[in-house]
Backbone:
């Protein structure tokens, strides 16, 4: 290789970097072959990149919910048609796809985003275009757009009850907190609110520690060492509040177990941890670690039984490349979102966003979680139940605690 | 909770078995009370009661206790037994295994360990139980260790029990025993013990008795020294383990990049495929030879190497061969190959993380000194990296192929002139580099999550190592990996993982300004 010089190497790497940063061309939108008299819904979930394993399955849930609507004769006499795209876990591409779906495809509503950073990029687009985005993840709150329906819980009705549980007698009377998160808006805001919350309870600042890692980080050796050192300083029961995302979750849990720390020594509250994150892990050493969501697969009630049965059947029938026996909160939230949208459109008798929006107050739906979820005139939040799950030996979560009713969602946290 | 356990009365009368089982199936409070009863049984209950109670605590933890309308049953491999009478009985309708709250999980782990220590016939099980009890030495019921020491037959365990018992004497009214306990605690230096010993400075005896004070002070000093040694070892070990990962990811690239100047962006995907081959070998063994399943990581070595090497050779022969004169094109072509391979794997296997068995030699860790824990999966990666280094070195330095590779690397035209088939050497070298990437995938499977996207994370890191080390030198790759690994690990606790990444990159840029050829430049007229 005589002609290979430093300069050409730099040119080449520069070109690659540019190529990696700006995807070439527009993402292609896959349409199903429905005839003229349809109403379109758009999905913004990645089926490639770091979020693929989690987000990918939500595309199918939205389709399944649309099938259910169509089986009952559609919405306002029109069949529901779901458009799927692939923003490739690339945050700016979510905005681009959303714009394309709203402008060219004239979708009536968008269902999408997992990470808060992707939602934040889509937000200006839906506001400008007057679209409607249903967001199925629990998140950091502090946002209240009339163009977004927050179908999952803000921290006041997800994270704080779970932290309260751990700090209480029934939990482990936690006194000290090690926060570790991926470095972006969701973990940082959640941790800011948690710190405000602890301050309001008179807990001194020395009782917590905060660490962040880059996206996709997997070498947790040193951090787990730090957690052990933090725990051994004494001063009460420590817990870890884990807000890393994607593959960092299993990698962290593996290192945690390998260093011999049990849930009874230092419990981990994994705010974004779902069954899919435990795939590929030996969970016998992780039993007892916690998560908190508005739905867990083991939720009791006929609505959940029906949902699990339908999902398994849908996976089998359509050869969906995801597990038919795993059901996670964002799936259920996306499913709820489609039905909430359909109810609003039916009530309004129209697909126009302002009309649909004005139909929100008073909507309620029997969520698979077993709670009756509802919307009010106050904001676009949905009130959901709260579950705290505990990792079991078969890579799932047992329900450790669940709320009596659905707490009223508080969009803006008073703690931070 | 601790107080309740310590002051619990000695159980004399036989306990109400049905009521205890009822409590186990009750609410969290009742379960908590049941765990206290079980722990006290272990300490001072009669032999038959302990034998009866042991499976209950175990059953609650491993979920083999099923509560049903008529009490509870214990599920064993073949049969189900009634939890109270231990007679054969099938589980009734609506059976459920109770979920332990975190608080109760801790108390049941204690009860289970206490009962196992007193009743288990296996020395190994008793040793494990003792380790659990040691972690919670402060909450042990009185008399448990004394009773266990009396009946213990294994001299090793006897000595361990004795040590823990002496440690537990820290709160004793007898000052000599306390001093002895302080000394015992200092034998295992850890931050937890340091806080414990330092806490004694506010004890009245500390100011009153100079002997106690010296004991505490020297213990604290000893523990601090132990912790310091532990921290240094931990930093070295963490650095070494990160370096081993970097090295494994980069060594294949060093061969390819060094020899042909091809920027192989598909290197990460070859790592990923190596991991997938390992998984397939595991599944094959599970099907054909389940007895050897634990050794799949070793058995998969040739498969992982050969498959990825074959892919590399095919890639070279079909695609890159035509692009040697155009580095930019070869870069884009390998990028395309990387996307192709990634999506091929995604379509074939799905996007989920692969499920790997974790054989005993990559599970858990051993506490060494201070807060240093020697984790086996990292050790596996380090040992694997060392072995790979040695083999690569032998291949490059001691075989005809290696001689050819070195000749072509140093001066392609001259090598061709003296009759070395440079095209063939290219192909073999590309195969070698790809095969090494496959081995990296194998070594990483006990550490990282294996999925189609995993390769992308390695490409930047491995280029960093190769460029810093000096293109095409094995020694450079080793030193660069060690340096980057160690610096990362040292910076992380100070400024966090995000800053560590930034600082390391800045350091590399600065270094390359000063030495553009990297650490170990190949001497001679290269270009």
Residues:
């Amino acid at each position: 290789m005589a002609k290979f010089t430093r300069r050409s190497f730099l040119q080449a790497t520069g070109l690659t970097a540019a190529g990696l940063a700006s995807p070439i061309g527009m993402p292609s939108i896959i349409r199903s072959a429905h005839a003229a008299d349809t109403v379109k819904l758009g999905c913004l979930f990645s089926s490639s990149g770091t979020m693929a394993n989690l987000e990918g399955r939500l595309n199918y849930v939205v389709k399944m919910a649309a099938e259910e609507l169509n089986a009952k004769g559609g919405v306002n006499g029109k069949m529901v048609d779901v458009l799927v795209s692939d923003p490739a876990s690339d945050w700016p591409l979510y905005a681009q796809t959303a714009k394309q779906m709203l402008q060219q495809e004239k979708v009536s509503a968008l269902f999408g985003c997992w990470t808060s950073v992707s939602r934040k990029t889509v937000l200006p687009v839906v506001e400008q275009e007057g679209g409607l985005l249903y967001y199925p993840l629990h998140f950091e709150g502090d946002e209240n757009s009339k163009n977004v329906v927050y179908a999952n819980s803000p921290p006041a009705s997800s994270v704080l009850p779970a932290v309260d549980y751990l700090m209480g007698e029934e939990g482990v009377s936690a006194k000290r907190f090690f926060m570790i998160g991926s470095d972006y808006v969701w973990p940082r805001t959640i941790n800011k609110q948690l710190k405000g919350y602890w301050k309001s309870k008179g807990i001194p600042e020395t009782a917590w520690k905060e660490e962040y890692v880059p996206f996709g980080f997997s070498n947790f050796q040193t951090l787990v060492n730090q957690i052990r050192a933090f725990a051994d300083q004494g001063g009460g029961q420590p817990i870890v509040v884990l807000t890393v995302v994607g593959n960092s979750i299993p990698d962290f849990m593996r290192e945690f177990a390998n260093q011999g720390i049990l849930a009874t020594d230092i419990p981990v509250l994994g705010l974004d941890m779902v069954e899919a994150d435990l795939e590929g892990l030996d969970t016998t050493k992780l039993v007892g670690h916690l998560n908190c969501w508005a739905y867990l697969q083991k939720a009791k009630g006929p609505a959940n039984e029906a949902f699990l049965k339908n999902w398994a059947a849908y996976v089998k029938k359509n050869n969906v490349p995801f597990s038919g026996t795993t059901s996670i909160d964002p799936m259920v939230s996306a499913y709820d979102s489609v039905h909430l949208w359909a109810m609003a459109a039916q009530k309004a008798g129209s697909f126009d966003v302002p009309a649909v929006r004005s139909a929100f107050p008073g909507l309620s739906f029997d969520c698979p979680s077993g709670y009756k979820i509802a919307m009010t005139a106050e904001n676009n939040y949905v009130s959901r139940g709260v579950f705290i799950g505990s990792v079991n030996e078969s890579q799932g979560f047992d329900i450790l605690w669940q709320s009596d009713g659905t707490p009223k969602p508080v969009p803006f946290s008073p703690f931070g | 909770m601790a107080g309740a356990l310590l002051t619990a009365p000695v159980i004399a009368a036989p306990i109400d078995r049905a009521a205890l089982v009822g409590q186990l199936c009750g609410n969290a409070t009742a379960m908590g009370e049941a765990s206290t009863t079980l722990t006290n049984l272990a300490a001072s209950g009669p032999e038959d009661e302990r034998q009866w109670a042991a499976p209950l605590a175990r059953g609650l933890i491993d979920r083999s206790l099923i509560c049903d309308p008529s009490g509870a049953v214990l599920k064993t491999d073949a049969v189900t037994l009634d939890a109270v009478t231990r007679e054969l009985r099938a589980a009734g309708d609506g059976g459920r295994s109770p979920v332990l709250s975190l608080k109760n999980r801790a108390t049941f782990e204690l009860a289970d360990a206490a009962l196992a220590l007193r009743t288990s016939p296996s020395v190994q099980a008793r040793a494990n139980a003792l380790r659990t009890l040691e972690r919670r030495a402060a909450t042990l019921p009185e008399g448990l260790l004394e009773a266990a020491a009396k009946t213990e037959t294994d001299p090793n365990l006897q000595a361990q029990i004795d040590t823990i018992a002496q440690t537990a004497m820290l709160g004793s009214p007898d000052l000599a025993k306390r001093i002895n306990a302080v000394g015992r605690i200092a034998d295992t230096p850890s931050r937890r013990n340091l806080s414990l010993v330092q806490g004694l400075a506010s004890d009245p005896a500390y100011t009153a008795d100079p002997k106690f004070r010296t004991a505490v002070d020297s213990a604290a000093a000893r523990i601090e020294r132990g912790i310091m040694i532990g921290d240094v070892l931990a930093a070295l070990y963490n650095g070494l383990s990160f370096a081993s990962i970097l090295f494994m990811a980069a060594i294949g690239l060093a061969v390819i990049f060094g020899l042909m100047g091809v920027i192989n962006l598909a290197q990460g995907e070859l790592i990923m495929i190596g991991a997938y081959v390992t998984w397939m070998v595991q599944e094959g063994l599970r099907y054909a030879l389940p007895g050897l399943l634990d050794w799949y990581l070793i058995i998969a070595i040739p498969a992982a190497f050969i498959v990825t090497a074959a892919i590399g050779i095919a890639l070279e022969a079909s695609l890159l061969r035509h692009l040697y004169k155009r580095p930019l094109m070869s870069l884009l072509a390998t990028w395309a190959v990387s996307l192709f391979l990634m999506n091929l794997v995604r379509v074939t296997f799905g996007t989920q993380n692969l499920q790997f068995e974790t054989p005993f030699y990559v599970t858990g860790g051993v506490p060494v000194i201070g807060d240093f824990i020697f984790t086996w999966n990292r050790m596996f990666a380090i040992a694997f990296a060392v072995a790979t280094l040695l083999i690569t070195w032998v291949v490059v330095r001691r075989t005809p192929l290696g001689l050819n590779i070195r000749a072509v690397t140093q001066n392609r035209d001259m090598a061709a002139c003296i009759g070395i088939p440079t095209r063939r050497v290219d192909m073999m070298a590309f195969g070698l580099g790809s095969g090494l990437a496959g081995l990296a995938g194998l070594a990483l499977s006990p550490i990282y999550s294996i999925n189609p996207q995993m390769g992308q994370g390695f490409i930047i890191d491995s280029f960093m190592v190769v460029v810093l080390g000096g293109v095409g030198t094995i020694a450079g790759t080793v030193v660069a990996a060690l340096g980057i690994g160690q610096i990362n690990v040292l910076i992380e606790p100070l400024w966090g993982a995000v800053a560590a990444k930034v600082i390391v990159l800045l350091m590399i840029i600065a270094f390359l300004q000063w030495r553009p050829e990297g650490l170990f430049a190949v001497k001679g007229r290269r270009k």
